[in-house]
Amino acid sequence: MPIYEFSCNECGVEFEELTGPHVGLEADSVCCPDCGASRVERLPTSSYSPIHRRLTTNERKKLESTRSVDRAARKAEFKRKRQAARDARNRSSGQG
Q1: Is the domain of 62 the same as that of 30?
Q2: Where would you tag: which of 8, 19, 28, 42 has the fewest CB atoms within 10 A of its CB?
Q3: Are 27 and 64 in contact (CB under 8 A)?
Q4: Which domain holds residue 15?
Q5: Beta-strand (E) ranges in the chain?
Q6: Is residue 52 part of a domain?
Q7: 13-24 burial string, b = 16+ CB within 10 Å, else e?
């Protein structure tokens, strides 16, 4: 989703606008929100924020294999902790 910065040639106001086919507004058809002028100039973007996303299962496995992560040991540790939590929950509910 491209968010572009624009400057109006008429009144000089700077603003941002979300453009693209998913919004139904192309960058060349943007108008100034203050004066309504169609003569706007797209400014170069000074910075951006990268989109953070989670790794897929295959990407995580590949990363773990390059880091030599022992998946079997991690899985066994998770099962042990989950069983300990279940046992603690059963003990506390049995005493109530």
Answers
A1: no
A2: 28
A3: no
A4: 3-43
A5: 3-8, 14-18, 40-43
A6: no
A7: eeeebebeeeee
